[in-house]
Amino acid sequence: MAVLVTGAAGFIGYHISRALLERGEQVVGIDNLSSYYDVGLKTSRMTELSQLGGQAFRFSACDIADNVALTARLTSEKFDRIVHLAAQAGVRYSLKDPGAYAAANLIGHLNLLEWARQREVSHLIYASSSSVYGANTVLPFRVEDRTDRPISLYAATKRADELMSESYSHLFRLSLTGLRFFTVYGPWGRPDMAMWTFTDAISEGRPVYLFNEGRMRRDFTYIDDVIAGVLACLDRPPVDDGLEKAGGSRSPHALYNIGNSRSEELMRVVELIEQQLGRKAIIHLQPMQPGDVPDTYADISATRRDHGFEPRTSLDEGVPRFVEWYRSFHGLA
Length: 333
Hints:
Elements: E1 2-6, H1 11-22, E2 27-31, H2 39-53, E3 57-61, H3 67-74, E4 79-84, H4 98-119, E5 123-129, H5 153-172, E6 176-181, E7 184-185, H6 194-204, E8 207-210, E9 217-218, E10 221-222, H7 223-234, E11 253-258, E12 264-265, H8 266-277, E13 282-285, H9 301-307, H10 315-329
Parallel strand pairs: 1-2, 1-4, 2-3, 4-5, 5-6, 6-11, 7-10, 8-13
Antiparallel strand pairs: 9-12
């Protein structure tokens, strides 16, 4: 039976679909192909998946917030697991278009929970975010930490997804796993994220804007490590045994951090990109952006304990791989 992947045309969605196809799974992919960033990049990802998967990959443009369209698309499909990655991403954009976050991240997530309940799927994995930790200052971030003080609407919607999932798991005994991703990067990444914007700016001789006067640190997690973690979690659903799960639930609902478990200076990323491109960055220091945090750092002890998750790609390895892909994708190699 197939795996339903929402957000299949997105960065992580593309890679998880590819990994599932490569291990012999059938994938039903849906994505609304929103114009939040270049739709051409999304269609290029879909072309790659179609060529790889053939008849094992079935894709349709579909908005998860539109339950009528979702019903028309999924009624004839058979799937027993869901990897739910479709969402409106980005902290800063939530200041401009909050409605997009309510539609995709709240209504869309609820629609997928209903589909999981109606189909009695064996496991639904969904994307949460490190943003749920808000203004926490105690590092590293643990899944047991407080998450009731979000500092962006994006973070608030992702925490709401976790709470809705907890209620559905409790009421309907659904096996659900929420994954709090930490700054994922790598080939086929998102153009709005730092790794891409820095590489783009440096290669074209434009300024690189560093917020908080450059005093920013992130737990950069390479896409291959992320996918290994997602698949490990997918293959081991939380058990309905009444015992406490990662994140504190006694329902079959677990929460895990998916990070590299290292907090890296943003300037180090700039330096590595400079080395790969053979060009110096023009750096403009800026004040902190609303809704942003100065540091992220994942405690992955629960993910390691329950799923053997062990990220292997250092920043020194991952950044050159991304820059090499970026140059090839843009015909610069």
